[in-house]
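Appendix B. Raw example, untouched.
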Amino acid sequence: MKKNYFYLAALSVMLVAGYVFYQKYQNVSDPTPPLRERQGPISTTSEWINTKAAIQGLQRKLREKPGDLKSKLLLGLAYMQEARVTGEHPYYYPAALGLIQDVLDHESQDQVLIYEATVAKATIQLSLHQFDEALETGKEALKINDHGAAVYGVLCDANVELGHYEEAITMADKMASLRPDLKSYSRVSYLREIHGDMPGAIEAMALAVAAGFPGLEQTAWATVTLGSLYEKTGDLKNAAVQFNKAIQFSPNYAFAISGLGRLAVKNKDYKTAEQLFTQAANIIPEFSFQEELVRLYQQQGKTAKAQATMVDLLNGLEEDQEAGHVVDLELANIYLELGKNPNKALEYALNEYKRRPDNIDVCKALAAIYYQKQDYATAATYLKKAKRTNSQDAGLVCLDGLVKFRLGDQANGTTLIQKSFTINPYQNTLCSAEAKNLVNKALSKL
């Protein structure tokens, strides 16, 4: 009896200890982040069936062998792609980053694995707009392997976003020399665009599309980006061709659907535009689709719809912020253009300026904000930095003309405004609306 009692007592102690251990550590374990079921049209595709099977296979491997670093890296990469496809950035990017950081923390001797994980980490940091961190991570990857094209891609992107444009060109050239493909051509295209060479940008993006495999998300992205380049030059016909081409191979590609929505707005077909923006927003929770809806509702005087959509838009961006996604520039532009609140916009723009004072888009945003605050001299200061790459962005040229006009140089101001509408006659911003009125009044006095 005593012997049995002893065993029972010992077993009870072990069970209690085990329960206490479980309660203490159940929330600090590092389980594999679960895959989320897709919703809507993207949940019924063969691509989702294949993706789901592949991810579940990786998860099964990790349950059987938690120390399988290669499977953990592949799962992280799969979650990065899932973020792109679904728009569920607040969930998938932190999940992917956690997996990849765990790979790096194990300090494997496999240098290929460490290089790929380091590049992946930098890519996620870029997606989260953590550009300084991405640059440093990219430099760490370069120390491991300076012959891989991918590392030059992340270094190019980080330098672009930080406003280090000469360095970005060097990185893009190096990438293209190592691997001339969709990823390198698309970076060359963007650098040509911000340096004012729109024909060259279109040419390079067309090469990117040609280098892609039809039906892949990356190819659809490049095709839509090519369409957007045509759109920026006022060539709506060719823009539509590219958006429809993307939809032909990827029927639920929300960015192509939204692109057709923008073209419908330009053609004053507001009913179709609303349907297309709503369709895109129902596929993935991308803030730019809601932004377009708010702008459209405001343009039509649908105040209640505009306000409700604006609330959803801001709530979504707040969720992104909480997940580590820096969206201060996006918020600055939204509060200026849609919220008509330059003071609130300025708070966010200055936050972004502290991080990357040399970026031309950040400087352009500040110039537009100070213009709306009627501080034209300060606007001109930021415009000087925004124009230093000779970008031929119609909005930037228009803003430059407005500032010159307000500072007394009406002749050059008028010329620049007219030039901006030659570049893109379909501008639809606060500045473009005011610019049209100013030029019409000035010309009527002649």
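End of appendix B.
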